[in-house]
Amino acid sequence: MTLTSPNPNLAEPAIPGWQRTLRKLLQPVILLGPSGLWLLLLLVFPTLLILELSLIPGARLGNPPGPYGIGNYIEIFKPVYLQVIWRSLYFALGTTLFCLLLGFPVAYWIALKAPSRWRNLLLVGFILPLWTSSLLRAYAWITILRPSGLLNSLLGFFGLPGQEWLNRTPAVFIGMTYSYLPYMVLILYASLEKLDRRLLEAASDLGATQQQSFWRVTVPQTMPGIAAGGLLVLIATLGDFAVPELLGGASSMTVSRLIYNQFLGATRNWGLGSSISMILILGVSISIALLLKYGDRDAI
Amino acid sequence: MPPVRNSNFNSLPPHSRRRFLQVAAAATSGVMLSNCARALLNNASGGTTVQSDGRAGSGNQTLRIYTWANYTDDELLSNFKDRTGIQVIADTYDSNETMLAKVQAGGGKDYSIIYPSDYMVDQMSGQGLLSLLDRSKLDGINQLMDKWQNPAYDKNNAHSIPAVWGTTGLIFNPDVIQAEVKGWDYIWDNTEDLTRQITMISDVREVLGATLQYLGYSINSTDPAQIKEAYEKLLEIKPAIASFVTNGWEDQLAGGDLMISMAYSQDAISLIAEKPELQYIVPESGSSLWTDTMVIPKTAPNSEAAYAWLNFMLEPENAARLVERLKISTPNAAAFDKLPPKLQQNENLFPSKAVLAKCEGIVPVKEEISNLYDQFWTRLTSS
Amino acid sequence: MSQTVIQQDVAETDTMFDVELRKVFKVYNGETAVRNIDLNIRQGEFFSILGPSGCGKTTTLRMIAGFEEPTGGEVLIRGQSMANVPPYKRPVNTVFQSYALFGHMSVWDNVAFGLRLKDCPKSELQQRVGESLELVKMDSLARRFPAQLSGGQQQRVALARALVNRPTVVLLDEPLGALDLKLRKEMQLELTTLHRDLGVTFVMVTHDQEEALSLSDRIAVMNIGKIEQIGTPTEIYEQPCTAFIADFIGDTNLMPAELATLQGETVEATTRSGLKIWVKPQALFKENPTREVLVSIRPEKIQLGSTDSSEIANRYDGTLKHVMYLGNHTHYQVELPSGDVITVFQTNRSSEQLKPGMPIQIYWSASDSLALPV
Prior knowledge:
The complex is a heterotrimer. Chain B is built from 17 helices and 9 strands. Chain B is of the alpha/beta class. In chain B, strand 1, helix 3 (about 75-85) and strand 2 (about 85-95) form a beta-alpha-beta unit. By secondary structure, chain C is an alpha+beta fold. Chain A: One of its GO terms (cellular component) is plasma membrane.
């Protein structure tokens, strides 16, 4: 506002002062109102609702709600639930690591090495899998990984021993990494593309080999992107139960599936489901807060 | 009983994705339609307070029904309209819990007919969500088979009319397995040879229930010791279990990557129609017997049309058509008589009395027991 | 413009050169950025490459640094060919135009970067980094991050980061371009002090002629990929070889003219408007007389008023058209009867005020009017 019309008296001579004040007061309401309402209705309110539910031990649809308490949170510390949380974290952290290891070279190559006119095409090509349903992709992996599937046919063709990956942890990592790699690549690409190449020249000028430049300049400079991509994949994989369930076999219970079961499974223990949700929301919020703090310090 | 049932195995089963959406939908509908968590929980019994009986029978010529996918088709609906002049709008769900959540949250007020499964009838009537059926308005209820005259889930069919039923059993390829499979023994006896080659339904009560029956207990056991014993018994065959899936095993079973799948009869029969080399059995130790019913919720805006629908579906011709179309069993004896002999003799559709005698419907259990089941399930699927 | 490059290094074969460019060519996507450059930079020299933007000066610097490989020709540093020698193996360090400081490192770590890569022992590293920071007066801000520094402070860190490695040659790419005038003057002074104290060869690229003139021992003026002249600041200013240089460096009155035959040391040139100017031609013209020239007269060489001296060959009557008072000096524009307008700079020694419209006389000596190739 002030930038475009540095002298409001000149720009709007006819408007009396009180109207301008009113306008100033109304402006944030008008600008932020719609999205604020949206956030309030679909984010803040549901979260508060879940918070309240989580504080009613054994809250069940159809039961008269009991007194408030933290029983639901104590329940989470049962080994059976801790194990599920641990497994989810294992899946999520592993997938994040794989996405990072596979995604960084790709993003690096597209952003810094590939001919610039091919970049968009390469990116589109890379995110193409996102256009299909993640379920379809999981089923495709079943076809590839099943004992008589494509992978083992290929291995057999080259005289290599067949692999039994389906319904075990490797399949979960393969499927989830495949699903979330494009997100990682996109975010890393955005970060690498902004990388000031003069910094690489400066490093080289000061005696750094390509490898040294990479570790001492490129990686630290793109750390916000790495953190953002990692966090996005981490959160997304924590919330994904379809892929683990389809590919992970009999021992693929994840936190999100557990929550689902509490809400729509046979027990319908909404209280416990809500408390696990709250723990998940809390964990994710803390990671985001850390990211913001960390990212801020690194902002140049 | 099945939380998810999809008779069309060829389309890549979209159930998991739908579940995903269901969670979101249930969560948002729950949020939008209630004021706070307590109100949300209370709404379950409070559903009755939002009665709109005044609108019933007001000559409204539209009937909204809430049902499983595939249970209605255009032909059925247009036949009904020709007969009664009532326009039917059918919405579908694919899990009882989703339907319940919607109805409890007050989102089911438009529906005059709902198709809950057996245990869900028990639960809904317990929460006062269902109207008592007026027998005087119903024709042909006496034609129901004996087993459905007075079902455990709804005494004297006070709130519900059974529509279709089925069993849960094992499907396999006898040529591949090269042994006579009569029940669960085969899996416990051959666990080592079956490593990651069987699938079981993704439902705690079905899986633990089948094991309970295998151990000689009731599928509805509420004895913690028995449930624990069943869990431990299941752990023995855990190495053989590739995954817990209700759908999605079909291709792998047909392709020989899986040896045996635990499946709902309806899914098994559909698959066998395409792959006749496969075989479905109800285990010797018994299985669950599930029924999907038709009910009139208390909030039904058009109960007159609802009764018309119930009577229409009770007609033997219409009930028989449902069997032919869905490859699903009917509880209607008169409809059974109208079926072609080939279907009548199909033991997968209509098991012998001896087999049926061993089948039990799954009924809801108390909260603590339900929690126990769930905890064992969580342990089973995360160990 | 013809190829009038005066090579004054030719005789100095015994001098050690830090940087030598031999017939260096650089072509980008079919466009020639640098054409056939020969350049010898002496040890310990403050050498500037001056030219307008796009003249190829930065490309030349980048070829010395190793960021670009010449398309043709050769770059030598201390007599060693730099062909296929990557930047990190060259004994040069660059101070980048925008400083290119590492934002994720403190000032100290930025300066220590190069030494750490060379596995410098800790005690030596501490000492050298400390000294460098002291040298640029940044020792008190060593713990800060670049984002917390002003432009001038960042400039100092960039200098320290380059100097700490004790390079043979320090390359400076428009080092003061981003600073405001006052800071620039201050840094100019510090740069010369640093250069004098350290005795390292500085090669600076700049488009600021004043900066080049005030800092450099020698200057190479580049235009459209070529070097037009190499010389000391005085040579470049007083005896520009081309009209481009005369115009680009400082101000000048440029008039196309035709030369008559040489009469002794001087020759009469006639401008298109008929104005006759006595010119002292350069050696080149004596050997290879060209008739079409550009006559260049620096405005500050022209005097206002009348003179009796017979030395002064050029005297004209005119009318004062414009007066622009600039404090310590004044710019005048004098219109001659021929229609030519001559710019004259005079320092303001008296407070006498000349008014536009006044008749006025101007004069300058023949040796102050240069005949440059067209």
